[in-house]
Amino acid sequence: MTVELEPQTFRVTRADLVRYAGASGDFNPIHWSDRIATGVGLPGVIAHGMFTMALVGRAVTTWAGAADAVVEFSVRFSRPVPVPDTDEGTDVVVSASVKEVTDEGHTRLSLTATCNGDKVLSMAQALIRKR
Amino acid sequence: MPLDQSFVGRSWPPTEPYLVGREKIREFARAIGATDAEYHDPEAARALGYADVVAPPTFPVAITMPASREVVADPALGVDYSRVVHGDQRFAYTRPVVAGDALVCVNTVEEILSRGGHEFLTTRTDVTTEAGEPVVTVWSKLVVRGDS
Predict the structure, then answer these.
(1) Domain, as residue range, for A84
(2) Is the CB of B57 less than 8 angstroms away from the CB of A50?
(3) With the C-alpha atoms ordered A96, A99, A100, A102, is the resulting torsion angle positive or negative?
(4) Per the confidence metrics, is the pTM higher than 0.90?
(5) B32 and A75: CB-CB below 8 Å?
(6) For residues B113 and B100, is the Cβ–Cβ distance under 8 A?
(7) B128 to chain A, minimum CA–CA distance in Å?
(8) How many Cβ atoms from other residues are within 10 Å of residue A59's Cβ?
(9) Test the B interface: residue of A16, A17, A75, A102 with most B CBs within 10 Å
């Protein structure tokens, strides 16, 4: 039996990337300069991979019910998340299914994040402590 | 240029302690839109059993990414940072980070792979208290894209 958790949608704008750059200390210009992003072959400014992972982390902690319930959390960044310079920005949709309950009673979630219908993460999962 | 394989297995001395500030956790939580009270309000956090405001799960990268620069930026390793993209990221938590923690990082190069014209560098950063109590272990895989 597969249990699907309620998907969560996160709006991402350029302002969010600027704020995340400041808070995280990751000032790589591909996350704020279209000139530099297109110069290295990207479609334009893209979200920090770690910003996308942070949004997935919000979804995981919401599902888990507590910040300290997360035992392990891992992702592979398989596609960039382009963030257009518009008021609307873009949406990242995070969904999850329960993959297994381990011998210790932890719940393993298989995670999916999509942007414009494309999966932007692969092999994403979280292990949640029983509360 | 291939990365220097002799770095595999090498560890660096512990970094200077990073003092986790309450305002830094609040700033990070605001930046990712995490509005729950335990990230912002010490009383709410204590009521849930934390010593002070608690950090969201990906907060440790704000500490480990700068700490791992001593590895990634070593010219002898040979990483061209302008060609780097983030491949994988993994956290294994012993406990969450809370405000007031003084955290020390030990970086290790776990793996260097060459595949399809790209180089893959996996670093592990063990994050502990100054007394050596484990807090979180953080793995990052960076991809150094080839010329093609």
Answers:
(1) 4-128
(2) no
(3) negative
(4) yes
(5) no
(6) no
(7) 16
(8) 24
(9) A75
Chain-centre distance of CA A30, in angstroms? 17
Q: What are phi and psi of B28, to 5 degrees?
A: -65, -45
Minimum distance, in Å, between the CA of residue B108 and any CA atom of chain A: 18
CB contact under 8 A, A10 and B85: no
Number of structural domains chain A divides into = 1
> If one looks up domain B5-21+55-145 in CATH, what number appears?
3.10.129.10
What CATH number did the domain enclosing A18 receive? 3.10.129.10
The one-digit pLDDT tens for each residue of chain A (131 residues) are: 578 888 999 999 999 999 999 999 999 999 999 999 999 889 999 999 999 999 999 999 999 988 889 999 999 999 999 999 999 999 999 999 999 999 999 999 999 999 999 999 999 999 999 86
The ipTM is 0.96
Nearest to B122 by CA among B100, B146, B138, B101: B138
CB contact under 8 A, A51 and B36: no
Q: Which of B34, B86, B93 is closest, CB to CB, to A71?
A: B93
Do B58 and A74 lie within an 8 Å CB cutoff? no
